[in-house]
Known about the structure:
HIT family, subunit A, 5-stranded antiparallel sheet
Amino acid sequence: MTDSRSDCLFCKIVTGEVPAEVVREGERTLAFRDINPQAPTHVLIVPREHYPDVASAGAAGVGVVDEIAREAREVARAEGIAESGYRLVFNTGPGAGQTVFHVHGHLLGGRGLQWPPG
């Protein structure tokens, strides 16, 4: 696990060092397609600022989690899944499946999503 900004894949995507299929750019966020999609729509929404996980982003008290949720709504509208429904998932820690330690929301939709998820 790394939370070093210089080693962070998503920080490198935000700065353009690593290419990604960007679907939406906000002032504080970037949304791009997941390279291993788990649904017809699978977009990652990340803040431009580095936080290792959603818990640390929420604890910072700067509204970044709210911003990710707002951007998810806009991406869902653009992708045509806002009306049928979508899921926004945050994995926090290795035990939950987090593999990149830069907070990111997984926006999933375009198919039925069962519960419980995993």
